Structure formats: structure tokens, C-alpha cells
Structure prediction request, 98 residues.
Amino acid sequence: MEILYKYISALRTLEIRPKILIIRFKRIPQIHPADVHVLEKVIRVLSERKIILFISDVDENIKNQFNFYNLNEKIGNGKIFYKIDDALKRAEIILNIQ
Prediction:
């Protein structure tokens, strides 16, 4: 999860900001309490910059942990996906509307 801090730092320096950021959880088997703090900060920073966050490749264990740590509410409804293809389709719909 520490890599997310570096990524957010890089986003701050970009002149053209992305409208949507998709974070893949493909190889993340579980969330540790320290990771929750990092993810909450990422959610806050992206929200302040009006960047929509999608989480993809979430398995049932991660989804349960999101519920336990109340991250699903912080990320938002309809923004957590089991497959990257579903996240990409939703991002395409949003970008075509804007």
C-alpha cells in the first residue's frame, strides 16, 4: 500500500489530472490495519482533487474487509468491482457522459 503514497505524490505534480483512477487489488490477499489508514488518505486526496476512485479485482475476502473497515462507504457505491473489465466499462460510461 505504500506505493499508493508515491502514486498520489506523482499525481500532485501532473498538470493534467486524470478524471478516474482505478486501483487493482489483484494480488492483495488482505488489508492490514495500517493499510486502512493509507487507503483512507488516498481516498481523501483523490476526492479533494475531484478524481473518481474505482477499486477492481476485489475478491470476497477483500470486500468483507472493506465492509469491516467501512471503506466501501468511503469509496462509494458502485465503485468496487470484482473484475477490471467491469471497472473499465463503468469508467467509459462516466467519461462519455462528462
